[in-house]
Amino acid sequence: xxxxxxxxxxxxxxxxxxxxxxxxxxxxxxxxxxxxxxxxxxxxxxxxxxxxxxxxxxxxxxxxxxxxxxxxxxxxxxxxxxxxxxxxxxxxxxxxxxxxxxxxxxxxxxxxxxxxxxxxxxxxxxxxxxxxxxxxxxxxxxxxxxxxxxxxxxxxxxxxxxxxxxxxxxxxxxxxxxxxxxxxxxxxxxxxxxxxxxxxxxxxxxxxxxxxxxxxxxx
Length: 219
What we know:
This protein has helices at 6-16, 19-34, 46-50, 87-100, 111-114, 140-152, 164-168, 200-210; strands at residues 37-38, 58-62, 118-122, 127-128, 159-163, 179-183. α7 links the parallel β5 and β6. The model has no long low-confidence stretch (mean pLDDT 95). It is an alpha/beta fold. The strands form two sheets. A four-stranded parallel beta sheet has the order 3-2-5-6. A two-stranded antiparallel ribbon has the order 1-4. It contains eight helices and six strands.
């Protein structure tokens, strides 16, 4: 069940041995054998498997996976091609187009961002079909908080995009060499409170360039 690339496995090995994680594994074994759980087991750690620890440039924190069939890919905000683009991602793309002045491609699959070093990390990595937040408070939050702490203290500068109050609760962990960008969540319920117009994508790229890193192609 821990199908995770070696660089992350070695980094997080201590977490895998803790009682909470062993309890989480047992919970997941039972859930996957008795219910429909998303994403598939081999995609649980996709966010970490696509981006090695030392290649992360940007961290975007989500909550839990999409809970309808076929949507969840193991990376936050993303859906495979062929699925309708979710409302929050539509708003993200709208802000990118406004901020950068270029049209986004018509695809909800954000693997293209991940391959450039954008870690799209949900804080809960699994969910029951049709039941949002159903795997909340079973241990995932402790594990993903440990991942964020490792990144937050990395000496090389990173950009943390913290959208919504939950993501912003991680701000105190983040060391001063990193750029913290805060805005309301891009959900239709809150995007008009300041996500639109936040210009996070241009600010991110300016910071990366100023620290001798290549910018992200957000389109």
